[in-house]
Amino acid sequence: MSNTPRLAAAKRDWGHDDSGCHVLHIDMDAFFASCEVARHTELKGKPVIIGTGTRSVVSAASYEARPYGINSTMPVSRARHLCPQGIFLPVDMRYYREMSRRIFSEVFARITDNIEQVSVDEGYMDVSAALQQWSGPRAIGAWIRQRVSEQFHVTCSVGIAANKLVAKMASTNAKPDGMLLIPVSMHAAFVQMMPLRGIPGIGPSLEKRLSQWGIGDVAELAKLDEKEVNRVVGSSTLGHHLFLAARGQDERTLSTKAREKSIGAERTFAQDTTDPKTVTTLLRQCSDDVASSLRKHALLARTITVKLRFADLSYATKAHTLERPVDTASAIYPEAMELFRQMFAENNATDGDSSASPFPALPRAVRLAGVSVSGLSKSDETPIQLTIEDLMPKETADGTRPERLSEAERTLDTIRKRYGKNAVHLGL
């Protein structure tokens, strides 16, 4: 369920020249809610809201629920107040993922294998090769929409353009259950009629930063040269992307073999808390869960991120990239603790002795906490550079050290078993 703004004026006929328009973006409509209606047909036409529990947030809502003001990330308690007659159902990710897998494999894959799935309910297709068998991209889009509807009883919207950016913006403005082709010659005009938030990736904070410079919409952004955009956003990488985006251009290509980008675990507290011990205990549990997932998938991670969501539903994240990849909670949790400490460092830099606790008090009530890792790589493909410290024998409980050589040998044996030929060690 997307909160990206849509313009009624954008949902029109932009022309029929489809030359060069080989990128399709397919976005399922209210997917979680639609899946529930597909298996419970008696819910059709009713306001279905995915999310239960007083501490939960809305994951999705049917289009019948949206006139009541329901949107994703809204607290379920607020949604119940706005739509008391709504039908509230728990999230069933196993079912939604299976529906997604079947749609991608049984429908999209019949067109091409050049598919980039970006989430459970959306993906890109490059249909260049398929156009040899089809009359055009619109025929492909129409067939996809028909097959998904008839076979799975859910609907999807399709955007067709020459690049990923415009295709995604087209599918957003085609919703619900629509299709929009944007000819290459109209890319700039289409993008420049949008508000800033219409460009994927521009969130509230970046929108605020741009507005402080007097930039209120994409058309005004397009008036700046690239150096000016870089100066406004403070990043040449982001500035280059926005400079192109404001002109309906996008240099990205489809990534059809992307590995899992991150692994994370997060949980919502039964009650908002300002107790640091409660939060750090949860961070420990999340670190354990993440480490277990890494080892289960034979992965290593370099970047650790801590996420906090506060009582007002705003959130903060902080990340750190390690010199060496890890897959254990004993390595992840201390980093998570340090990141947590840094997030409140300014607030905790008060007078008085804080030796009793590194977090005397949290200045804001925390609703949710979590840990995630990224920068993933396969364990058996990642060289590990051991240090002298890794090979030194560890002290036992009574303060003595076991025989040095046997301890080093045991350490190396453990490393070799885990990382095989990619374990590179330093001799003593």
Topology:
Elements: E1 23-28, H1 31-39, E2 48-50, E3 60-61, H2 76-82, E4 87-89, H3 93-106, E5 115-119, E6 122-126, H4 137-152, E7 156-161, H5 164-174, E8 179-181, H6 187-192, H7 204-212, H8 218-221, H9 226-233, H10 236-245, E9 262-273, H11 276-296, E10 299-310, E11 315-326, H12 329-343, H13 345-348, E12 366-374, E13 377-378, E14 384-385, H14 388-391, H15 404-419, E15 423-424
Parallel strand pairs: 2-4, 7-8, 14-15
Antiparallel strand pairs: 1-6, 1-7, 2-3, 5-6, 9-12, 10-11, 10-12, 10-13
Helix pairs in contact: 9-10, 11-12
What features would you highlight for this structure?
428 residues, 15 helices, 15 strands
Q: How are the strands of the biggest sheet laid out side by side?
A: 5-6-1-7-8
Helix count, DSSP H or I runs of 4 or more residues: 15
Give the termini distance in whole angstroms. 57 Å
Tell how many strands the DSSP assignment holds.
15
The helix content, as a percent range, equals 25-40%
